[in-house]
């Protein structure tokens, strides 16, 4: 049975004026409602220029067209601490269960090969990390394209945090203090391989994002599906919308807001209408995962708890929590 088309809320943030504009509270209420109900929204009026977007997609295709040996020279670490770099198909296994073991883990590790390869671009403090970035002579303009594009993504991220703060009844600058030592950004190229379509094989397992906010840019192939609580938690399509960024809440921001903002399960499937003559086309998406300064202690935001709504989560070091989740992407069997 085909999935129904899923229309995420479309929210235009172009006119937001840091709480001073006449429509600011309307924008803030709309965004918080979308993230509370769905965990996802299409954001327009974001300010990320189309030439920057086109530039990173061009560079993404150039990178994934490199010889395997060249990509393997930038291989990602598997300890959860240093995960920037290249992951070949099947290397990283997305799982929602951080404690998976035994038969379930064995099934995941030895199941169908992964249908995507990824590259977490090496950017630290807004600058190129030479250990996790292609050399300029190999891919001219790659580093500059991703740095300048992600600079604009970071601006959108901060604007969205200010809108969220206002929508939750706080000062618009509430989240600013957690970014004084810089904003962590992780641009990631996700290349879903083309090939013979196989019934029942998805392209990325269901999961929630474990960070703060994800800004997702994708090509026209589609395949993103999101759990819709209003439809008995079934997965429904969230196709790309022209000129919009698909933005979703991660586990850490949900935790920060005491669960008011929802971190929603999602996956990538093979859209039947994309299959031509039994062949599934390749797909590119480029999320930019954004978060506060390293080692930020994430404690429940004031105003989101009280006598009738207790704190749902204890304070946690955000960096350590994310590293734990990242390490689970490379599952290893426990000693018998």
From TrEMBL:
InterPro entries according to UniProt: DIOX_N, IPNS-like_FE2OG_OXY, IPNS-like_sf, Oxoglu/Fe-dep_dioxygenase_dom
One Gene Ontology MF term: oxidoreductase activity
Swiss-Prot/TrEMBL keywords: Iron, Metal-binding, Oxidoreductase
Residues annotated as domain Fe2OG dioxygenase: 183-292
Organism superkingdom: Eukaryota
Classification via Pfam families: 2OG-FeII_Oxy, DIOX_N
Signal sequence extent: none
Similarity comment: Belongs to the iron/ascorbate-dependent oxidoreductase family.
Protein name: Fe2OG dioxygenase domain-containing protein
Organism: Naematelia encephala
């Amino acid at each position: 049975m085909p999935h129904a088309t899923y229309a995420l809320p479309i929210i235009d943030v172009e006119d937001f004026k840091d709480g001073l504009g006449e429509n600011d509270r309307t924008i803030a209420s709309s965004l918080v409602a979308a993230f509370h109900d769905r965990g996802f929204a299409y954001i327009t009026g974001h300010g990320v220029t189309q030439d920057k977007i086109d530039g990173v997609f061009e560079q993404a295709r150039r990178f994934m067209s490199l010889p395997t040996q060249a990509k393997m020279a930038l291989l990602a670490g598997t300890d959860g601490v240093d995960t920037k770099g290249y992951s070949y198909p099947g290397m990283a296994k997305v799982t929602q269960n951080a404690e998976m073991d035994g038969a379930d883990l064995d099934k995941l590790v030895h199941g169908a090969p992964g249908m995507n390869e990824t590259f977490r671009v090496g950017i630290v403090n807004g600058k190129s990390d030479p250990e996790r970035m292609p050399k300029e002579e190999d891919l001219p303009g790659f580093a500059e394209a991703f740095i300048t594009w992600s600079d604009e993504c970071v601006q959108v991220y901060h604007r969205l945090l200010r809108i969220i703060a206002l929508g939750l009844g706080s000062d618009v600058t509430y989240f600013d203090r957690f970014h004084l030592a810089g904003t962590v950004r992780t641009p990631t190229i996700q290349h879903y391989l083309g090939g013979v379509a196989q019934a029942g094989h998805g392209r990325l397992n269901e999961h929630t994002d474990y960070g703060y906010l994800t800004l997702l840019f994708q090509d026209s192939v589609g395949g993103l599906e999101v759990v819709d609580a209003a439809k008995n938690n079934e997965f429904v399509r969230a196709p790309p919308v022209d000129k919009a960024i698909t933005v979703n809440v991660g586990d850490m921001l949900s935790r920060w807001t005491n669960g008011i903002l929802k971190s929603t399960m999602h996956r990538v499937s093979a859209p039947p209408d994309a299959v031509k003559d039994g062949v599934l086309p390749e797909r590119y998406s480029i999320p930019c995962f954004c978060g506060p300064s390293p080692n930020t202690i994430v404690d429940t935001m004031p105003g989101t708890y009280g006598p009738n709504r207790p704190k749902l989560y204890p304070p946690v070091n955000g960096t350590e929590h994310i590293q734990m989740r990242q390490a689970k992407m490379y599952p290893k069997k426990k000693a018998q």
